Each structure stands twice: as structure tokens, then as C-alpha cells.
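re: that complex we talked abt at group meeting.

here r the seqs, copy pasted straight from the sheet so there may be weird spacing, ignore it
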Amino acid sequence: MDKKEQILASALKLFVEFGFHGTPTSKIAKEAGVSNGTLFHYFATKEDLIKELYITIKNDLNQFLFSKITPEDSVEAIIKKVFIYFIYWALDNREKNHYIQQVLFSPHIFQISESVLMEQSQKHIQLIEEAKATKIIKDLPTDLIYTLANSHLMGIYNYVVNLPPDQQKPIIENGFEMLWDMLTEQK
Amino acid sequence: MDKKEQILASALKLFVEFGFHGTPTSKIAKEAGVSNGTLFHYFATKEDLIKELYITIKNDLNQFLFSKITPEDSVEAIIKKVFIYFIYWALDNREKNHYIQQVLFSPHIFQISESVLMEQSQKHIQLIEEAKATKIIKDLPTDLIYTLANSHLMGIYNYVVNLPPDQQKPIIENGFEMLWDMLTEQK
DNA sequence: TACTAGATTGACTAATCACTCTACAAAGGT
DNA sequence: ACCTTTGTAGAGTGATTAGTCAATCTAGTA
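got the structure back, here u go
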């Protein structure tokens, strides 16, 4: 692992444990096994480090999610895969998931440009549009569906994260069904 | 408004805007119109201020929610009221709502004692237990229902917060129906 | 009036932190 | 072999900050 990655990994660990304020750049450098100067060689400011870490994690997540899709998958199958694999990713990468939330509810999120944020949600939005177009899911505003799906996902995650691994699967599967029913059932 | 309240109000405003790190105690004192020393007369440490602000807001919210309930309300009516009024509270108190989330995804949450946190969710948990006992809602684990309801609530809030006020009501009402269907519908 | 206890002030301090700077090493191109 | 670029180190610095402290003020009570 090269130094830059090492710095990002250390920053992730420390930010999640001690928060942005509670983590001096000096401690990040020490944990990463590099000098103070090296950290600032790769990241001009601490803020840049916080931002780049966020973007890196989000990109990794998206790449992982969409790598699970095969061309023959139906829209419904894709949505289910994105749902299920997000949970498994979050369970395997708890710190990363926590970090994303941490940034989301901090002023640092405003430092990340609108276009970068939109780029990251674009594929998900597109997926919802497709599902709406083919009448699989209800005709609610796309943003509303996106927000509700995200929230539901976090809800399921927050519950299963405290469960022993052998009890997680049924809840996750059922969790998807709940969301799917919510988005498809007709009154 | 006495000085202590003034300090809490200023801290809320600044923490939400600039984050915990970005807000020195000196700025809080200045914004509150009190001296540096006065702040530390009321709050031994900055951490104490962060904690107390969280607890105060949460208590205010709970008091507000349960003040809307009348003795003749059915369990279903109570749940609906708690849902609907939470959204309206959050819309009227955006900074407070944001602050709660901010603390929730920060290391400061671990500084708040388990018993205080449990006390605050107790009434909500109890409500779910009642609904389950009277077979109104599905027999899922209470914690799961609690988590899902919370997430759904935040999802709806996140969507309506960007809507013009006159378009909010139908979404909120419909949002409750979605959750209710999810928790009651039989397969 | 005199006493007391809490409220309030703001200058002060010791520590910390983000970031700089200089020096040197390694790598790579020509 | 020479030069340029990039990587790495770590001591140093100026600014900032949480928290202290001694002094003053205020209001209640006897």
C-alpha cells in the first residue's frame, strides 16, 4: 500500500473514532507511518484530506455495487442487488459507512462540489427513472423515492449491524421486500 | 431569555453552521453576548456544552410530541400524531433537528450515558410494544420497527424540507401511510 | 447596613495544531 | 553522467484555543 493510501486509511480510522476535531494531522501521519511533511505533500490542507477521503469511499462503494450487475439483469433485479449488496458492503466496511454519514451531517459536506455529489448519485437516480418508466414502481417523485430508499437502507443496516451474522440474512431479504412493497403496491 | 439559554441557543446556531471544531467557545460567548468566563461558569467544558445541548433538544422534542396526545387517542392515532408532529417540529426547528443528527454521527454521542439515551426513546419503544400487543402492527422485533420508523421519518423530512410549504402536507400524510402499510399489511 | 453566595468579567496561559520550510534522497528522462 | 521532478523527512512557527483566575458586581437576607 503506498503512502497516500496509507494516509487515507489512517485518517478514516481516526476520524471515525475521534472525530474531525479530535484528530490532529500529526496523529494521522504518525499512524500512517509517514512524516508530517509527507501528509501535506499529498493533501494541501486537512480539509482536502477530509474531502478526498469522502469521494474515494463513495466511488469505491459505487464501483462495488455496479460490479455486481450483469447485462441480463432486469431492472428489478438490479435494484435488489444494489440494495442487498449495499448492506453487505456496509457491514464489511463499517468505518467507511460511518464516515460517509459523519461527513453528510457535518459542514464539510458543503465543501464538496455539487457536481461531484450529483455524479455519485446519478446512476442510482437513473435506475429509479427506468423503473418508473417501465411502470414497475409507483409514480412518485424520483427524489422522494431516492431519499426513502436511502433512509430505509440505513434503517435496515442500523438494525442488522448489531445482530450476529447468521441472523442478518433473513432481515436483509425481508427489508428489501418491505421497501419493494412500499414502492410498488397499489391501493 | 437567561444567559444559559442564550449560550445554548448560540452554540446551536454556530455548531450547525461551522461544526464542533469550527466553533470556538469564544465565538459562542461573543454571539451569546456574555463573557468567556460566564460560558465556563455554566458549562465546565466544551464537551459538556455539546452534551447538554443535545439532551435539552431531545427533551424539548419529546415533550412537544407527547403534548399533542389526548387520553382518548387510540394507539394508531398516537403513532400517527407522533409521526406527523415530528415532521412539523423538524421543519420548524431545522437547526435543532440537524444538530441531533450531527451529534448522532459524531464521537460525542458516546459521551452521553446509555441511561439518558434509553430514557429518551423509552416512550416510543413502549408505544411500539403496545401496538404489537394489540396486533395492530406486524410482529417484528421492536428495535427493528423503531429503527425503520426513524429512518422513514428522516427520509420524508429530507424530502419535504426542500419543498415549498404548500406542497408539504400531502407528502407527509402519504409518507405516514407508506410506513403504516409497511408495518401492518399482511402478505 | 453588613454579609454572603452566586453571577460576570476579561485578561491570561499553557498547550495544541495546521501548515511551512529547508534539506536531502530517489527516480527517471536525455 | 547530469539535471529535473517528485517524494520524504522533521524541526520550526505563528495563530488559535480551551480553560483558569482574581477581581468586581448584584441581589437576597438578617
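couple things i noticed - Residues 1-43 of chain B form a domain with the Arc Repressor Mutant, subunit A fold (CATH 1.10.10.60). The two ends of chain B are 54 Å apart (CA to CA).
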